[in-house]
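FORM 12-B: Structure-to-Sequence Request
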């Protein structure tokens, strides 16, 4: 009886967890691809440069692996080819456990991206999660007699469910790539007040770790005794710190960040000109021209890019883009919007609209949000 209950618990938890993890990543396949690129680059330095071969295909791996998680989770819950599914899940979990342990122990990748931007886990938390999952899978393998596969008719029905899960998960990933994520968990989502998020929500408090006579001591106030040697300071309320710490915009004349939060601004984000979709600038230029003619709500367009001024000058002449441009960090731009190019509409620093280049809005749509 106890083994049967344990089997049912492990069956439900493992199936649900894989489905949840896969769906969260399919919600933002570009974000998952960025995380995979980070892993490939780390492994290329630590093991072999051959891993760099996989970088251009990170998006394909993202959609495939995320869909596979959903498919296997569904297959387990409907008990389709249970034995095969369990062994595949075990192999995947062993692989993920190695990745998270390697990241945690050697401090290589600070966020595994297991649950995308929805749930942030530290490297050791990610490793602990995988260890628990590994234990549950071993329990399932040891007690799989309590989880028999369905009969022949049941297997056909289960197979149809798995096929539908395959089509839906892959379709979900492809659609999310061609548009913005269904659910935006990032700090730059619609409704976010960027200048407010750049400030702490409460005064930060710190614990000072000091050393004296070979002994480590902790203080909530910096000690005045000069015999103490400072080691490090640790925030006591990091959750009250700024949610955005790296948003900076500049050009050759200096910093432009604060000016960006004044009035109505339409940010045209171009991550890198080499990878941007040049064809989309026909629709973008039409929008910019329409906004310039429509003065009911003045909107100032600004381009943000991580490309060099030389590269961008050549590019903007190729696509006839007559808009002032500024520079920002490449990682920040990819966090702001996954699309390259992408559009972000702000009103006094508050995000009121975001669009993928496949969904360029009309002048009326932009004006209605201001």
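FORM 12-B RESPONSE
SEQUENCE OUT:
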């Amino acid at each position: 009886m106890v083994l049967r209950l344990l089997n049912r618990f492990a069956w439900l938890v493992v199936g649900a967890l894989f489905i949840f993890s896969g769906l969260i990543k399919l919600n933002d396949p570009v974000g998952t691809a960025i995380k995979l690129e980070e892993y490939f680059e780390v492994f290329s330095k630590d093991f072999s440069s051959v891993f760099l071969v996989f970088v251009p295909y990170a998006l394909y791996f993202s959609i495939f692996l995320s869909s596979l998680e959903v498919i296997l989770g569904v297959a387990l819950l409907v008990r389709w080819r249970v034995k095969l599914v369990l062994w595949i899940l075990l192999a995947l979990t062993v692989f993920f456990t190695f990745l998270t342990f390697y990241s945690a122990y050697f401090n290589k990748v600070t966020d595994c991206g297991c649950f995308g931007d929805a749930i942030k886990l530290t490297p050791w938390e990610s490793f602990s999660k995988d260890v628990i999952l590994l234990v549950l899978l071993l329990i399932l393998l040891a007690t799989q007699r309590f989880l028999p596969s369905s009969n022949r008719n049941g297997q056909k029905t289960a197979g149809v469910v798995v096929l539908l899960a395959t089509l839906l998960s892959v379709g979900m990933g492809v659609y999310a790539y061609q548009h913005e994520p269904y659910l935006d968990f990032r700090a730059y989502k619609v409704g976010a007040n960027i200048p407010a998020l750049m400030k702490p929500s409460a005064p930060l408090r710190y614990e000072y770790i000091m050393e004296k006579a070979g002994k480590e001591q902790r203080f909530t106030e910096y000690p005045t005794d000069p015999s103490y040697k400072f080691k490090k300071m640790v925030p006591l309320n990091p959750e009250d710190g700024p949610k955005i710490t790296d948003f900076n915009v500049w050009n050759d004349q200096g910093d432009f960040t604060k000016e960006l939060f004044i009035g109505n601004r339409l940010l045209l984000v171009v991550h890198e000109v080499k990878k941007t979709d040049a064809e989309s600038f026909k629709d973008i230029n039409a929008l910019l021209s329409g906004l310039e003619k429509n003065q009911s709500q003045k909107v100032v367009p600004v381009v943000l890019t991580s490309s060099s001024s030389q590269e961008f000058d050549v590019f903007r002449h190729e696509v006839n883009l007559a808009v002032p441009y500024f520079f920002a960090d490449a990682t920040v731009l990819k966090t702001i919007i996954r699309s390259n190019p992408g559009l972000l509409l702000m009103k006094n620093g508050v995000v009121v609209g975001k669009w993928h280049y496949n969904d360029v809005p009309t002048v009326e749509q932009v004006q209605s949000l201001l």
